[in-house]
Design goal:
The protein is α+β, with helices and mostly antiparallel strands. It contains 41 helices and 48 strands. The strands form nine sheets. The protein has a nine-stranded mixed β-sheet with strand order 39-38-40-41-48-47-46-43-44, sandwiched between helices. Strands 16-18-15-19-17-20-21 form a seven-stranded mixed β-sheet, sandwiched between helices. A seven-stranded mixed β-sheet has the order 32-34-31-35-33-36-37, sandwiched between helices. A hairpin with a 5-residue loop joins strand 9 and strand 10 (275-290). It starts with a strand and ends with a helix.
Amino acid sequence: MSKTSCLILQGKKSFSISKLDQLTHAFNKINDIEATISSSELYLIASDSDLKNDLQDIITLVKGSEKIDQFSFLIGPRVGTITPWSSKTSDIFINVGIDKITRVERFFGFQIEGVDKQINNLDLSMLFDRMTQDVYESIDECSSILNPSTKRCINHIDVLDNGKEALIKANIDFGFALSVDEIDYLFNFYSTENRNPTDAELMMFAQANSEHCRHKIFNANWIIDNKNTDQSLFDLIKATSKNSPNGIISAYKDNAAVTQGKEVERLHQDTNNIFSFKKELLNTTIKVETHNHPTAISPYPGAATGSGGEIRDEGATGRGARPKIGLVGYNVSNLRIPNLLRGWEEAEHSPERIATPLDIMLEAPIGAAAFNNEFGRPCTLGYFRSFETPFNQNNTAFGYHKPIMLAGGIGEIRDTNNFKLQIDDGYIVVVLGGPAMLIGLGGGAASSVSSGDSDEDLDFASVQRDNAEMERRCQEVINTCSSMDDSYIEFIHDVGAGGLSNAIPELAKDSNLGVLINLDSIPSSDESMSPMEIWSNESQERYVLAIHPDNKDDFVAICERERCAYALVGYTTAEQYVKLYDFSTDSYPVNVPLSMLFGELPINDMVVTSQKDKKNSVEVESFELKESIDLVLKHPTVASKSFLITIGDRTVGGMTARDQFVGPWQVPTSNFSMSLRSFTDHSGEVVTIGEKPTIAINNPAASMRMAMAEALTNMVSVPILGMDQIQVSANWMAASGENIEDLALRYGVEALSNFAVELGISIPVGKDSLSMRTKWEQDSKQYTVKSPLSGVITAMAPVMDVRDAVTTLLDTKIDSELILVKINNKNRLGGSIFSEVYKQDIDNTPDIDDVSSFMKLFIKTQSLIADKKIHALHDISDGGLIVTISELAFTARQGINIDLDQIIEVGNNLNQVLFNEEIGLILQIEKSNVDLVLNQYLDQNLFACRIGEMNAKKSINLSLNNKEIFSETIINLENSWREVSHAMQSIRDNKESADSELSLIKEGYSGLFAKDSFVDPDVSSFNIKSTKPKVAILREQGVNGQMEMAAAFHLAGFEAEDVHMQDLLDGSKNINNFNGMAVCGGFSYGDVLGAGGGWSKTILYNSKIKDQFKEFFQKDSTFTLGVCNGCQMLSNIKSIIPGADAWPRFIKNYSDQFEARLVQVEIKNSNSVLLDSMNGWQVPIASAHGEGRTLFKNNKQVQSLISSNQIAMQFIDSSGQPTEKYPLNPNGSIDGITGITAAKGRVTIMMPHPERVFRASQFSWKPDSWKEFSPWMQIFVNAKLFSDGC
């Protein structure tokens, strides 16, 4: 065995100045010291051969130095794990020709000054993630990650000699979470087999039969007051689809539900990688998951893998689907923001083993957003609720110490791929994706028990690690196969809870076959892992596939083109057994029949006793109105969610028609999200969310009816074909195991089922998480925090034309009035934000008292929208009527007068009217149509009345009995509403940026606008000549923006061809065979060596490829467009681009955060051939990046670009001036520079994304004058004109 050579290099600073200040503050506060912290990255590079000849190349590649500073300690990966950074950087080394490297890994060296304590006596928790990292005392110790431990052996549980006690002990030691009945079942099985079980078999059984996987409570028989019920909870849910099967193609039997779509032009990629539009039926997938336990333990990876797992569910539907838009949601206990404590937040009590609500909301949303961003799925919808009650005399409270982390989305699937095929024995079983690692072991079982019932170390072991870039590569393989006339994928299953030990047996079970798997063929990054750990770990970004042997070579070729890891691990068998063979020991760590694993295990009956409500009615107190409005607007559930939205890319893919932001001021008040089905069609899907858990404490049935109603009133703004076309995912969270909570679950499910049946709506998909309880001991007292029944409704419906939707943006150009519409004029305050801020337990809750009235409200509103009678619409929800009015005012920066005379009745006080959260709508109606609209609602026996109109004072004024009772400026009210978002941004990001964004409200920013001379022609006229010049849609691994780029160029008359860098490296394609090159956006190599760094180095370090690009750039007949990651990459190879000497590098945004915004830019008078005739246009454009700030060596570079007319695009403010003000300039680039040219204008690079918004319907705000295309389509038209020599 050759000796390992180890090289250590020091790299860049680990953190920005603002981020280091935040870490230092947290470190000093928790350790009660005043220390100074500095930190740098270090790179450990290992090889089995001498690295002397490659040393200089390695140093240049990682921008490292052999000079190493002194460090107090280092943070690095846990032994036995390989970080995503490592695997991506290793790929770069290989692709640049340095192939002797066996491992490259990153550490963070910390120097702590001004501390007397020993390091092991300090709390370092804020500096590392215990789940994925360790502390190393010296650089020498870091090399221990290269020294694999001895391989751990299989364990046999000796039931033959020690009986059932051996299983009971193993259940505790391994965290199996087996029930007494399951232990009896296993003991009987192995006693009959006359052999001892292995730990691999028991872990596999535990995951497959966990509550997480088997849904025992939903499948149980219920006995209420000693009487058997007719239906299980699952029966009640399925009854909705039986009653309303319209549109359902697949329900309850795949990774996601499949619903009926529409025939549209799909952007098709043929076997030669040429793009074209192909008309066919595209259906919709829908799936919503939760990842609560992992997010409680380790928020960032917990939420990241929550979104990643849900994405895999969609991709693994049928024979392969394509995820399209995503959503996230969070429920946590009180935030307790430092220096912003609220009156309703009492002293914090929580266990140390889980993250605080504040930490969860600072870290988890970043994790989920980062995964969605890097994978390339826009996240366009979400919700956030903070809720916690005071502890009662039993030290029990309602809240979300165990949070809810909701992850969902919809996707598209070709009609030919709706269903998996029946495979035969002899099919090859493939594991697609990354290697096994000792992370995420036993997650299914861990998620099935209350927090505090399992061992703390096992909790951390059950959380997974994320690698979105690997999952993107897997999805590219799926996309290629699913685009074929007959996909190579005949069966696919995602790898989630239980790892391969669950996914592979599921494949066998669903196919009525067995499997024989070779343990040694399963990729593993840790040589010390035991067979059980290899078989059951939950390492992410993996899928299990079945392919026919005849298709093996072609399938492998697809994987290798995408550089996607794969392994042929075994094959299916006629014998229905699960067999895992270990060549090293010539034994079977797993050898059991499928019937044992998925047998008819006993499911305990749910026995409950109804309880009488002992609550007394609470008299609603009167509070000072101004204070009440201020407190409600500042509640996190009501307040602006901007800090959760701008971190997520919402435009990638080019299929977003509506995200969370509305209007020229981009205010997050949208009721719904919409996607498009095609780049040439206006049909799409609408998605909404509803949840009302606070009502469930007193009325669980009402909470579910209200959750459904909220989802539907959020949807009512979008014309759909009918309620029977709505499909719903229901996600259930409850603290089961206690009579009152089990009853609440039963009542909630029954209520939703009955409500859905009456509405004609089906629920074809959902998930349950029924261990929502946290228990711990603190100060010798036992504490419990449990969630109320929390049903989250995600509703989806097909939309014929996304342009017909109505938003929350008031039309200030018409003479109008606002009207209030409700199903009745009840004003119940139970479960309201008002009751929370004043800590009042009000038991009289809102409800849907009459289903037919609710249906009339929905149907009539849809009809009026179709008739163009409604100009703006906002539903009444959290915070009540006053919040709805306020958000309408914020969105349009428009004052509103409200007259309360018609809605305050005898017995109702002001609080009840303004703050109740009964279902209702506020509509903007043109004055000439108000009577007509009111009468149509009144004819349906609904409550409807005039309520107000806009004013010119920029204030909200309330009057009663002709007397003004409240008046406040929009500026002050919006400042209150944005206070939480600002505070969270200030803690998480660069505080200067957070302050800058808040200041826009008072500085008179007048919003987005459009100044252009674009003429919107027919698509056919773009094909100026009969020629079809060729454009290379260039991408590297991790790039995710190629589809929208290809669509825009194809529509402009090009032959667009997908070109992977691997094609160039293999020699199968040459960039000089193309007229143009579009270098796409995304996260090449996960941006591990700087944005676009790895991609550029694969060009510069390969002389053959470098020469190709150099030749291409020098041709007078070629053009190049580089966008976002493509812009960053091209800037790194400026040495081979003529005239690019003065180009900058692109570094991390000044805000320290990924920024996704609709921003205003001006197209400058440059020599760009792509921006020809666009000089002076000032238009909005999508921008989404984390490293877009220009860094020039000196001011001479800037002046050089100016003098040579190479500055092509700048961020501008609402007065049209270049700006560095955040977030108008989202990255902090000097003079707002965000687009540059070179090569006499033939090469243009820019950070914003014109390819995502070349259609008018892709904007969250646009002027009315834009029709089919936006002005950004002119870029692609100009490219065609240039290629045609025009």
